[in-house]
Amino acid sequence: xxxxxxxxxxxxxxxxxxxxxxxxxxxxxxxxxxxxxxxxxxxxxxxxxxxxxxxxxxxxxxxxxxxxxxxxxxxxxxxxxxxxxxxxxxxxxxxxxxxxxxxxxxxxxxxxxxxxxxxxxxxxxxxxxxxxxxxxxxxxxxxxxxxxxxxxxxxxxxxxxxxxxxxxxxxxxxxxxxxxxxxxxxxxxxxxxxxxxxxxxxxxxxxxxxxxxxxxxxxxxxxxxxxxxx
Length: 230
Fold this sequence. Notes:
- This protein has helices spanning 11-57, 59-65; strands at residues 73-80, 83-85, 92-102, 110-117, 126-129, 140-141, 151-156, 162-170, 179-189, 195-197, 203-209.
- By secondary structure, the protein is of the alpha+beta class.
- The strands form two sheets. Strands 2-11-9-4-7-6 form a six-stranded mixed beta sheet, with no helix packed on it.
C-alpha cells in the first residue's frame, strides 16, 4: 500500500508561485544589468566623441605647462656700439661686442651660423675675436654656400640664452671711406629644437669710421743758391 505524504493543502501552488516569482526576479535583474551596461557604453561613446573637443580646449593650458625648451624659440643678433674709429697704422682696437641671443633657455646645444659681409675686409680691416681674449674666434669657415664671405659657427650651450664675441679693428693711415661690417644669422641648428630667426634683428652692422686726414703740413722751402759754372 502506497503511503501518501501528509502535506498541507495548497503547498504545491505556493511552491509553483515562488518558483515563478524567482524566475521573474532573475529575468528582471538580467534586464537591469543589460540596461546598465548599455548606458555605460553610451556614456563612454559620448566621452570618446567629446575627447577631441576637450583636447582642443586644453591646448592653451598644455602649452603653458610645456617646458620652455619645447616651444619655438627666436634667435637674434646685436652689436654694441654700432660704430668706432679705425685707428692708426699698427693699432688693433677692440671696437665692439656682438651678441647672439635666444628668447628662452635651450635644453641642448644650439649652433648659430653667422655670415660676415660689408665693405670692410675680414683679416684686412678687422678680425673676429673671443670675448675674453684677442685670439681669433673658432668655428671659422670660407665654404658655406649661404655666405658670400666668411662665416662663424657660434655655439649656445645648454642653459645659455646668449653667446658674445668681439670685433677688433685693424688700424691704418689710408684716407678712405667709412667701412661696414655686417653680421647676419643665416640659420640655427639644433636636433630637436624649433628656432626661428627674428626677421627684424637677424643682422647687426658695425661701421668703421675713417679717422685719417690729408697731411696739411706746409712743405719745407729749401733756399738753393745758384752758382754759375766756372
